[in-house]
Amino acid sequence: MSVDAATQPSASYATRFAERYDAWFGHSAPTEDTVALLAGLAGPGPVLELGPGTGRVALPLAARGLEVHGVEGSREMAAELRRRPGGDRIRLTVGDFTEVPVDGPYTLIYLAGGTFFEIPSQEAQLRCFQAAARRLAPGGVFVFDALLPETVCAPQSAGGRVLPTADGSLVVRHR
């Protein structure tokens, strides 16, 4: 499938930073927590990641035995994923993940690391939701990480507090 970088969510970001992405966001504790949560939600699979990037989440899910598919908007990120050990186990489509250009059904469709908020417009976000819903298996789950920077910068104004857990993670507690 051809990709027009000008219309892809995150394409220019991904193009510029594909080689350095894991150094910034590949921290093991949050990734392990995310993988454990998603694996628990996935059931027997298969699962689909929209915007898998370098495979930070997709590769550990595949290592757990899940069949993992991905739709990546950046050829550069897709190439990085392919270079990784186990990258050949991910069934990868390069294309516009707001359109979800693959067939389902999937027990889990997810976007990790704030990828959803790289989608450039509310209309495109709605298309993504609609396309994902059409590809979910009965009882399937659609999940996306939400970065809430305002809770870190001004937790009181967001109506909650950021609390550290015993393992060093941060949890937002709302009143």
Structure description:
There is one protein chain. The chain has 175 residues and is α/β, with parallel strands linked by helices. The protein folds into two domains: 140 residues, Vaccinia Virus protein VP39 (Rossmann fold), CATH 3.40.50; 28 residues. 35% of the residues lie in helices and 22% in strands. The protein contains seven helices and seven strands. The strands form two sheets. It has a five-stranded parallel beta sheet with strand order 3-2-1-4-5, sandwiched between helices. It has a two-stranded antiparallel ribbon with strand order 6-7. Helix 6 links the parallel strand 4 and strand 5. The longest helix is centred in the N-terminal third of the chain and has 15 residues. The protein is globular and about 40 Å long. The chain starts with 10 loop residues before the first helix and ends with a strand. The N terminus is likely disordered.
Structure summary:
The protein is of the alpha/beta class and 175 residues long. It has helices spanning 11-17, 21-25, 28-42, 58-63, 75-83, 122-135, 149-153, and strands at residues 47-50, 68-72, 91-94, 106-111, 136-144, 160-164, 170-174.
Protein topology:
Layout (H helix, E strand, L loop, with lengths): L10 H7 L3 H5 L2 H15 L4 E4 L7 H6 L4 E5 L2 H9 L7 E4 L11 E6 L10 H14 E9 L4 H5 L6 E5 L5 E5 L1
Parallel strand pairs: 1-2, 1-4, 2-3, 4-5
Antiparallel strand pairs: 6-7
